[in-house]
Specification:
The chain has about 325 residues and is mainly β. The chain contains 3 helices and 16 strands.
Length: about 325
């Protein structure tokens, strides 16, 4: 029995840490934009499309910004290997509109609610050797890939909210070679009750890069187009306030042929301290693909009327000599 148990453990460990096969999304344009947003989102394995609590960003679903409590500002920095960088910045705010007839009612409910979310993801690779035709090093070069998004949402009833997001891509590849692109996100969220949410989202509609290499190769240059895959997501979340548990799950399909399942859970251990973890990109189309776990925590404290929080997340990265570590700071005011 001990030998059988040992063999099962070794087989499981081999599958867990094995180098994975490339997925359908591998090598597709805009890969940096699919890594997640911030320490909280990555720590819960990016299963955030149906989450309406805590610090929110239109990156996961433009419809959720109407549920943001107070004003939220968050920033994050990633520790990555191979001279790579990944940084985050986001501001989300909810706007409540009241009827003039209820102006003296302290228990009034808003007539309608709107949400705004603005964010930036910056990614790049530095210290790349630049060499001439003889292999002699000329210096170091770097690339920079960026995405800015603007999300607008409206809550049409107590249960239904809809949102739309515009994405702006800018890729600085080399010297005079750069490209821009514009894409669209649409999202919906339905609150079944105080515990259950259901979300639908389609992201990166018409997102693409167009390249022109003639500034370097002149007449030998070519024009090419790299389309960023369109992602379709169905998400669900469950919150139990008494137990301090928030659980979420989503299924993602892309027009590149990929099918992923991701799920995460967040525990409120005590006031303003949270532990979280989950599995991101569980590949439903490729059983040989290993698990991609994530974990993290958050702690926040009030300073007057401002709530300041610290976030941390860890995620395994199979194609790198080191895993991802993301730290962030958030403010609610």
């Amino acid at each position: 029995m001990k030998k059988i148990l040992l063999i099962l453990i070794l087989l499981s460990a081999g599958n867990f840490f094995a180098q994975p096969k490339f997925t359908e999304l591998s090598g597709k344009a805009g890969a940096f934009s699919r890594l997640g947003f911030g320490a909280r989102g990555i720590g819960i394995a990016n299963a955030m499309s149906a989450v309406t609590e805590g610090n929110l960003a239109a990156y996961y679903n433009p419809a959720v910004s109407v549920f943001q409590e107070n004003n939220s500002f968050q920033t994050g920095y990633s520790f990555l290997s191979l001279d790579r960088s990944l940084n985050f910045l986001n501001f989300t705010r909810r706007f409540d509109f009241y009827s003039a007839a209820d102006s003296t009612n302290i228990n009034r409910k808003p007539r309608s609610t709107a949400g705004l979310s603005i964010g930036i993801i910056n990614s790049g690779v530095g210290k790349i050797d630049e060499r001439d035709n003889q292999g002699i090093k000329r210096g170091d070069i770097a690339t920079s890939e960026n995405m800015a998004f603007l999300g607008l949402a409206n809550r049409f009833s107590e249960k239904l909210s809809l949102g739309i997001g515009i994405k702006f891509y800018y890729y600085k590849l080399y010297e005079e070679i750069s490209s821009t692109g514009v894409g669209l996100d649409v999202g919906a969220l339905y609150k079944v009750n105080d515990q259950w949410n259901i979300a639908l989202m389609i992201s990166d509609i018409n997102s693409k890069y167009k390249w022109d290499s003639s500034p370097i190769y002149e007449q030998a240059g070519t024009n090419t187009e790299d389309k960023i895959p369109v992602l379709k997501k169905l998400g669900v979340s469950y919150k139990n306030s008494e137990a301090g548990i928030l659980a979420s799950m989503e299924i993602e399909n892309s027009n590149a042929g990929s099918n992923f399942l991701r799920f995460g859970i967040e525990f409120n251990l005590y006031e303003n301290f949270y532990l979280r973890g989950g599995i991101d990109q569980l590949n439903l189309s490729n059983s040989d693909h290993p698990l991609k776990p994530a974990a993290g925590f958050s702690y926040a404290k009030y300073f007057g009327t401002v709530k300041i929080g610290i976030d941390y997340a860890f995620m395994m990265e199979q194609y790198s000599p080191a895993d991802r570590h993301i730290v962030g700071v958030n403010f609610q005011f």
